Amino acid sequence: MVKESIILVALTIFSIQDIKRKRIHSLSVFTFLFIGILFLFFSEETGLLNPLGGVCLGLVMFGISWITGEALGYGDGWIFLTTGIYLGAQKNFQLFVTSTFIACAFSIIQMIFGRKGAKDEIPFVPFIWMAYMIHIGGSCYERIV
Predict the structure, then answer these.
(1) Are 126 and 15 in contact (CB under 8 A)?
(2) In terms of C-beta density within 10 A (0-12 exposed, 13-18 middle, 19 or more buried), how is residue 3 classed?
(3) C-alpha–C-alpha distance, residues 40 and 48, integer Å
(4) CA 14 to CA 125: how far, in whole Å?
């Protein structure tokens, strides 16, 4: 439960920064990245392969940011690199897919009602936060059943 709380606090802080400033402070990302690395070494979970796989998604997103001229921001890559340390490869990819789906649905609804155009930018981190809340809800449900 500690790991989930750390991720939730981090994503909440990152979401607020993304909404207010349209950027993520590197100090806050590096703080949670450092905590994640410490958590890896001091937790009872063994193996570095799964967290390293989770980090790969962030690295791929850095490449996409570079190729597209930051159509997808570097901050999003840092977020998924950080969550990858905590969640591992599979759960981090699920978080990415879910957050992308939510962001697409939101964007379509905004375009239908004429509030946003196809070229308008939206902060992506709040959708990562929403996807993580769904992830936590699903985990709680699995524990109960």
Answers:
(1) yes
(2) middle
(3) 8
(4) 7
Which tokens in the block code for residue 39? 């958590």
Q: Which helix (H) or strand (E) holds 34?
A: helix 26-42
Whether 87 contacts 53, CB under 8 Å:
no
The H-or-E segment that residue 54 falls in is helix 49-67
For residue 76, how far is the Cα from the chain centroid?
7
Asked whether the predicted pLDDT for residue 11 surpasses 80, the reply is yes
pLDDT digits (tens, 9 = 90+) for 94-143: 999 999 999 999 999 988 888 777 677 788 999 999 999 999 887 655 55
Give the pLDDT confidence of 19-70 residue by residue, as tens digits.
999 888 889 999 999 999 888 888 776 677 888 888 999 999 999 889 988 8
Distance CA 72, CA 79 (A): 12
Phi and psi dihedrals of 117, rounded to 5?
A: -105, 175
